Amino acid sequence: MIDYSDENKILQVEHLKQYFNIGKANEVRAVDDITFDVYRGETFGLVGESGSGKTTTGRAIIHLYEPTSGKIIFNGQDVSKLDSKKQKQTFRRDMQMIFQDPYASLNPRMKVKDIVAEGIDINHLAKDDADRSKQVEDLLETVGLNKDHSSRYPHEFSGGQRQRIGIARALAVQPEFIIADEPISALDVSIQAQVVNLLKKLQRERNLTYLFIAHDLSMVKYISDRIGVMHYGRMLEIASSDEIYAHPLHDYTASLLSAVPVPDPEYERARVQIPYDASQEFDGKERSLVEIVPHHWVRASEDEIPMYKKRAQEDSRLKK
Amino acid sequence: MENDKDVLEVRNLKINFNTYAGTVKAIRDVSFDLRKGETLAIVGESGSGKTVTTRSIMGLNSPNAVIDSGTIMFKGQDLLKKSRKQMDQIRGRDIAEIFQDPMTSLDPTMKIGKQIAEPLIIHKGMKREKAYAQALEMMKLVGIENAEQRINNYPHQFSGGMRQRIVIAIALVNYPEILIADEPTTALDVTIQAQILDLMKELQAKTNTSIIFITHDLGVVAGMADRVAVMYAGKIVEYGTVDEIFYNPKHPYTWGLLNSMPTMDTSGTELPSIPGTPPDLLDPPVGDAFAARNKYALKIDTEKQPPFFKVSDTHYAATWLLDPRAPKVTPPAPIIERQKHYAELVHEELNKSKGNHVEEQEEQL
Ligand SMILES: Nc1ncnc2c1ncn2[C@@H]1O[C@H](COP(=O)(O)OP(=O)(O)OP(=O)(O)O)[C@@H](O)[C@H]1O
Ligand SMILES: Nc1ncnc2c1ncn2[C@@H]1O[C@H](COP(=O)(O)OP(=O)(O)OP(=O)(O)O)[C@@H](O)[C@H]1O
Ligand SMILES: [Mg+2]
Ligand SMILES: [Mg+2]
Questions:
Q1: Nearest 5 degrees, angle CA A37-CA A39-CA A45?
Q2: Does residue A156 carry a pLDDT above 50?
Q3: Burial classification of residue B71, based on how many CB atoms lie within 10 Å of its CB (0-12 exposed, 13-18 middle, 19 or more buried)
Q4: Per-residue pLDDT at A106 exceeds 50
């Protein structure tokens, strides 16, 4: 079980805003005032339609952007205020990212061993060449590849194998926190299961924390302890994955869940999709995340709270 | 045609690729039919040959492809014997395709109205005005709002979902007999995917187009397909109606596929996955290509390729487990659950038809 006490927070995102092209005609409010916490050892799933701001959130957390406003606190420290070289280096080791596209994210001209050892080299984590090779071999073994793969180039591998190389690269610096941005979307079903099992196994063995970004909701439900639903740069709902599937409070969440194809022909024939009218988000009312029942948050205005309380008590809103 | 409902009959297709490393035996004796107005889903792991199969129907395989044997019969003629020019005609008119990435199939420098109208002008010799009028109608049909204005927009002015609608409009503008959809929604999010899938079903109901649908999302298959063909290492290993494949699967590879997809109810520490990797098609194994990854493999699997065994008139599977001499195996628990469910379904169906029968008799009396 995950310890959800305040002391166990590894990441705190507070009122994060990430705008692009500020003040210009094409200003984009990619992330617009979101607040959430991630606890050590858990998997926090981030879902939402294309363009809702998931990747931007991930990139802001790993400090690829300077936030427009708001704070990101990792292990108790504001990531915008890491001054010493040592602090910055530790942060860059502790937090790693794996990307959606296993083809684009690996340098085609580098051998697998050099890709995997990138972080080891930057952070001087190997005593000598032999130690470096040993570490790379161990990492390849950890992710289910074998050591004679290390002298090959990325194009010699299948999609699932390339994604494993990306995971080995992320693990090389022994991170605590991994942002996985759609790590399995490009893979086929049978390989998806292998990669998901690998991520879960590594999490158990190394007490890793994941921010898992995806739009495949059945996989997100399976892998996540808690899920956050994003829409138009805002966080609309946060709850444990079982709770969010049983009682999606926000209409958008219910609509998103109802759109997921289920591998069961009879269910599909009977499926009713719940339409969603986004205009309700723009009625000018003041809204913030409200804890409707313990650990279940929804973006609501004062007058919507009773309605959400009622929904939370209803029987499961979705048929399955 | 063997069956008058068939619009396409693929027989004994074998396709090799010449590469510097040797000959890749990509398609190893594939046969299937496509019926009028149906959706046939082709599923299977990456590299199993789904795209190469459909590319051969389109006459669009890469230059290093060699057709080793086979026929692809369409309207009484073998597409494999057509010249490139004849295939260009057929592609614009009778068989259309939509791809995974809408951007690669749209010309970024051309207004979308022109892109939709052009096939009509080229293939049907239609007058410009008439072609544009039909293009406009098609845009409305695929759900593009303000079509009159948007006909003059360029692809980058549309969202990903809208672009895929435009690709569908282009593919369907000629009311083709056959539509090949190769992972048409993989790049889209679930909300947009649901819209595109509904749109395809709706258009199919109107135009009676036959669809070959390639995807690795079994949820999409369950919702779209009438029949399903499962491919592994260049062969079809099982085919049947969508209910037969989901509720009464017989091939261990199909079991593995169905099990590795979590449903909303899946929990537990480990997802069942198929261990290992597919065989090297430069040198395919002698026996059943799935044997090395199959925990139910029999000795004969390493020696001899299994033939198709008949499960029902519509359902066939190529696995030695169906041979009468094979030992009974117990499939994974979720598969047994599905099979129980299937037995109930079939039972209900039987009862229903019995009921009808009684009524008819009563009427006769
Ligand atoms: N560098 C940038 N400059 C301008 N706009 C940007 C930039 N990066 C992202 N955006 C915009 O911000 C919004 C959110 O994008 P983001 O990539 O975070 O979405 P996402 O939820 O990850 O979507 P997807 O599921 O498609 O990956 C989009 O409208 C996007 O076009
Ligand atoms: N031009 C080519 N030269 C050599 N081999 C090829 C060529 N095109 C395809 N192949 C091989 O043929 C086999 C089948 O490929 P195909 O693209 O049909 O797979 P697929 O089932 O569509 O996979 P995916 O789900 O990844 O799209 C693969 O082993 C592939 O490497
Ligand atoms: Mg993204
Ligand atoms: Mg393909």
A1: 70
A2: yes
A3: middle
A4: yes
Instruction: Specify whether the CB–CB gap between B263 and B58 falls below 8 A.
Output: no
B59: left (phi over 0), alpha (psi -120 to 50) or beta: left
Give the whole-angstrom CA distance, residue A124 versus residue A104: 26
- Residue B152 exposed, middle or buried by CB count within 10 Å (0-12, 13-18, 19+): exposed
Tokens standing for residue B167: 């690709």
B361 touches chain A (CB under 8 A): no
* Ligand nearest to the backbone CA of A57: 1
Q: In the beta sheet, which residues pair with residue A11?
A: A38, A74
Instruction: Determine the Cα–Cα distance for residues A41 and A177; give it in Å rounded to an integer.
Output: 9
Helical ranges in chain A per DSSP H: 54-61, 85-94, 112-116, 118-122, 129-142, 159-171, 189-206, 217-223, 241-246, 251-258, 265-270, 305-313
3-state secondary structure of A18: strand
**Closest chain B CA to residue A194:** B273
Per-residue buried b or exposed e for B256-279, using 16+ beta carbons within 10 Å of the residue's own CB: bbbbbbbbbeeeeeebbbbeebbb
The pTM of this model reads: 0.88
Provide the residue ranges of all domains of chain A, joining segments of one domain with +: 8-240
Angle at A71 (CA atoms; ends A70, A75), nearest 5 degrees: 170
- Which residues on adjacent β-strands are paired with residue A74? A11, A77
Strand locations in chain B (E) = 6-19, 22-35, 39-43, 65-74, 77-78, 95-98, 178-182, 210-214, 227-232, 235-241, 309-312, 315-317
Tokens representing A202?
């590594």
With an 8 Å Cβ cutoff, the interface of chain A facing chain B consists of 49-51, 158-161, 185, 187-194, 196-197, 200, 204, 215-219, 221-222, 245, 255-256, 259-268, 271, 273, 320
The topology under which CATH files domain A8-240 is Rossmann fold (3.40.50)
Q: Which of B210, B232, B212, B202 is nearest to B305 (CA)?
A: B232
Predicted confidence (pLDDT) per residue in A216-260, tens digit: 777 888 899 999 999 999 999 999 999 999 999 999 999 999 998
- Predicted confidence (pLDDT) at residue B326 exceeds the cutoff of 50: yes
Average pLDDT (B22-36) is: 96
Collapsing DSSP states into helix, strand and coil, what is residue A131? Answer: helix
> Would the CB of A18 count as within 6 Å of ligand 1?
no
Q: What is the DSSP string of B183-233?
A: STTTTS-HHHHHHHHHHHHHHHHHH--EEEEE-S-HHHHHHH-SEEEEEET
Query: What are A293's two structure tokens?
Result: 């029942």
Instruction: Please compute the mean of the pLDDT values over residues A291-316 and round it to a whole number.
Output: 92
ipTM given for this complex: 0.85
Give the pLDDT confidence score for residue B283 in this predicted structure.
92
Closest-approach residue (CA) in chain B for A195 = B273
Which pLDDT score is estimated for B132? 95
Question: Cα(B288)–Cα(B292) distance, rounded to whole angstroms?
Answer: 9
CA distance linking residue A305 with residue A122, whole number of Å: 51
| CA B292 – CA B29 distance, rounded (Å) | 20
Query: CA A133, CA A215: separation in Å to the nearest integer?
Result: 37
